[in-house]
């Protein structure tokens, strides 16, 4: 597995996003399936595992702690705080809370679930706009000094917010959605990351499964599937996006790879500072994704991909209005 730099860590060029094993696309996968997936990833050379307190309200971290704690020295562990499940009278709900005391508690809870003494890369999962970013990052820097985390990251923030955070404490990585069909980071965030030598971690690199090999049936999505609330999967936008999908798959066939591998290879070709973290609950999909490191794309193929999939051809916003208010995209 080729390696890339993630701040002070050298990790596999493709990591594993561990949301899928706990929530987001339907019912959580069985514990045994999650365990097999994590161990398969480690056996296949994955050394970058990304999770969060939010995922399954701690279930993803618990899986990682139970399965990978005894292999802790073999991989770089990233998790996130500032957005987690909070118990209310009518059940557990997702809450964005960037107050220092909450971030400290989130971190302690994550360390316990992950069965580790230190988290290598700790992200602010969402910027709580009620709390100055300087205060949240300042509290996270206290976690570094206390030896509970090694480095800090930010998720879904603008270039402006990144600069404010960087002035408080060095940021190792910025994570947001980036793929052929989500190009927001190209406006300003990637440039800011490169200015400071910050690694860019790309989540949802397969466009929430749209750029995978399977034909998606939006009507068959689980009732709890988060894509049901995403505009690009609404009937009118989904139909529009299906129109360019055959041309994309034809390029994959010409290159000699699967559609998923082509999407990941495109990202890897955007620069050595880009680290995709596809998520999956299936071992066959995992192995397929990892083979993307062997796919070489020449400039002509890259240009054709940009012609087929770009902000003009993709129909619909990536988030609905409520989710858009929760991310810091004003100056993307």
Automatic annotation (TrEMBL):
Gene3D superfamilies: NADP-dependent oxidoreductase domain (3.20.20.100). Pfam families: Aldo_ket_red. Residues 13-309 form the NADP-dependent oxidoreductase domain. Keywords: Oxidoreductase. InterPro entries: Aldo-Keto_reductase, NAD(P)_OxRdtase_dom_sf, NADP_OxRdtase_dom. It comes from the Bacteria. This is Aryl-alcohol dehydrogenase-like predicted oxidoreductase.
